[in-house]
Amino acid sequence: MVLEATMIAIDNSEYMRNEDYPTSRYEAQLSATEYIFQNKVNSNPENTVGLLAYGGNGPEVLSTLTTDFGKILSGAHETKVHGGSHFSSGIQVAALALKHRQNKVQNQRIIVFVGSPITESEKDLEKLAKKMKKNNIAIDVVNFGEESINTSKLEKFNNAINNHDNSHLVTIPPGPRLLYEIVATSPILMEEGYDMDNGDLGGGMDGFGGGDLIDPNMDPDLALALRLSLEEERARQEREALEQEKAEKPELDKIDEDQ
């Protein structure tokens, strides 16, 4: 089992509003982000994952390296779609977050979603890739949405960063399959324990009931229904926690008065 610290960099630029991937580019990458998190922490209990958004006015760390799915989920869903893409600075901030990992034995990896045009030149991207490679950081790129514009640049970036096949470029054009399904069966996660014989993806999404494994070839409508069910369950748990907190507050206030 690979021991890794992984920063996931999501694109929250205006291009992510496009609905050429269900239900939008932004929502499609969030589903994939959730899946990647579960896959990483299930493959090794000492793995940690962080989250960063590199759109808007500039990169923003949404969650430092953690094993707490709630922190990742909260950061992802509180982020607004706005502004432009800051690919290079996003990668550099993600690398800085990895540098501050508590367990220095962990390998360093960045998984970056690219759903808007990359404005950096090929020369600048190559320079960035060499810097990351020198610092022993592997980078996986999920290229979607603007793949006709970005693929050539990202292929050269991948060639420059790749060290003994430790970095991958996955290009995903619009289609009937959900984005996370394709990521799940790509080299980005295939090395993390995917069993082609039984469809085992290294652990189910938390909340899908009894830890059942997700079949990457499941019907897209069923996959969407499961995800909505998961979100409804989380909302229900949050409501119950809030109600319990309100119910306990008078008791705590009474104890304070007695003291």
UniProtKB/TrEMBL annotation:
Q: Which GO terms describe its cellular component?
A: cytosol; nucleus; proteasome regulatory particle, base subcomplex
VWFA domain location, by residue? 5-188
Q: Name one Pfam family in it.
A: VWA_2
Q: Where is this region: Disordered?
A: 235-259
Q: What is this protein called?
A: VWA-like protein
Q: Which domain of life is it from?
A: Eukaryota
Supply the alphabetized keyword list: Proteasome
Query: Where along the chain is composition biased (Basic and acidic residues)?
Result: 235-253
Q: Which Gene3D superfamilies match?
A: 1.10.287.3990, von Willebrand factor, type A domain
The UniProt similarity line reads:
Belongs to the proteasome subunit S5A family.
Which InterPro entries does this one have? Answer: PSMD4, UIM_dom, VWF_A, vWFA_dom_sf
Molecular function GO labels: K48-linked polyubiquitin modification-dependent protein binding
